[in-house]
Amino acid sequence: MNTVIVGGTIVNEGTQRKGTIVIEDNTITSVLAPDEDIPSTSFISLTSQLQIIDATDCYVLPGIIDTHVHFREPGLTEKADIESESRAAAAGGVTSYMEMPNTVPQTTTLEALTDKYVRASGSSHVNYSFFFGATNDNVHLFSKLDPHRVPGIKLFMGSSTGNMLVDADESLEQVFTTAARLNLSVMAHCEDTSIINANLKAVCEGYGNDPPVSLHPLIRSEEACLRSTQKAVELARKYNTRLHVAHISTADELELFTPHSSLKSQRSNLNAQITAEVTVGHLLFSSQDYSRLGTRIKVNPAIKSPVDQFMLRQALMDGRISTIGTDHAPHLLSQKEGGCVRAASGMPMVQFALPAMLELVDQDVLTLERMVELMCHNPANLFHVNRRGFLHPGYKADITIVRPHSPWTVTPDIIESKCGWSPMEGHTFHWRVERTLCNGNIVYDGQRVDPKHKGQALEFEH
After folding, report:
1. Whole-angstrom Cα distance, residue 109 to residue 131?
2. Of 50, 148, 162, 455, which has the most beta carbons under 10 Å away?
3. pLDDT digit string (tens) for 376-411?
């Protein structure tokens, strides 16, 4: 389908301007100012098969790239699967995702990795890729990975089960040295397991075997996060490994990353070998919200204090944070019952991340241009995604159109995730996703996701 998007305000590379986007098949062919004519060589002069999208009063953004999701397939599909969660992604303006390896089986073998790509090719409504999981004994497989196919290595330095917990010094050094030699990025979940275990024992002695969820930040404490993140940063510096620290949750951790006050210096910071992600949940919630939302916001690392939340928000604009992800992690509500021990950790956020971050724009926490950098440009640059993340001629036509001043309330019937709930239920947003285009096709029209549309495997440049 050939498409022209007219009348909208294009947000791209730090600027906002009215313009027209011309799409031929799955690729952007022109990005024009309002007074520029569509080139005579365009398909418009050659065919009558033309779709015009009127984006008047809307903002036209690159499609959101979520570099941190858990879609639960295979093995945990009672919670979610690739079809359902990619549908939620499309409804939320997300056109590409990078999925994590802690499924059943874990994505720690080449066979399991291939299986996920096969599954996604038949069921994912948007573009996809999958991290390869590090274990204590699979580093020898890193050299067999196709770096044009996988975004990198996911390393759990805490908060995992089985052999995906890698915290012994010798094993960690093997992961960092091998990844550096092969020029593979490492995304690390950083929490110190020994500190968590000691905290859990102490809290259980005072509050019983399943303490209230409000104590979760005491168990998965600021110290546990800081100690582990310090170790990851030290190893990355020692071995010159490309490191992206997932879901930073504390003010103290932010001190390990260099502020960059100007937009130019923030962009140059993408060349740094060590960068940080913050999640939507840690930006939206603080420990004060446990009384209202309970285990619905129980995640690892824990949602922490209002001071931590404030400092994470501050870091969005000064360059210490490079990407915003969701850590989308669905569970059935029955699995969220209990306290710190019994309730599962994780929440579904991929459908509501973009409207939530646009609310932070309205609150002057960050600018719209910076939000696009954090959710579109920087994910593409950091992971070397080929021809996505920007609105440029020659790039794939992954585009999200959003409308301000268009209130709507989250109700159970609009939740696309298979688990059927959201911590945002009852919340009224004031930005609406009007259209999601993936590879030039309207995958979400503002009301429903096209069930026939399938995304493409992401490609990475190295």
Report:
1. 11
2. 455
3. 999 999 999 999 999 999 999 999 999 999 999 999
Token digits of residue 135: 């274990």
One-letter amino acid of 55? A
Tokens of 112: 């399991």
Residue indicated by tokens 């036209």: 60
CA-nearest of 245, 241, 116 to 176 is 241
The rounded distance, in Å, linking the Cα atoms of 27 and 16 is: 21
Residue type, 451: P
- Say how many CA atoms lie within 13 Å of 45 toward its Cβ: 6
pLDDT in tens, 144-183: 999 999 999 999 997 666 678 998 899 999 999 999 999 9
For residue 297, CA distances in Å to 155, 189, 337 come to 23, 18, 12
Neighbours of 103 (CB within 10 A): 21
CA pair distance 244, 380, nearest whole angstrom: 13
Locate tokens 């996920």: which residue?
116
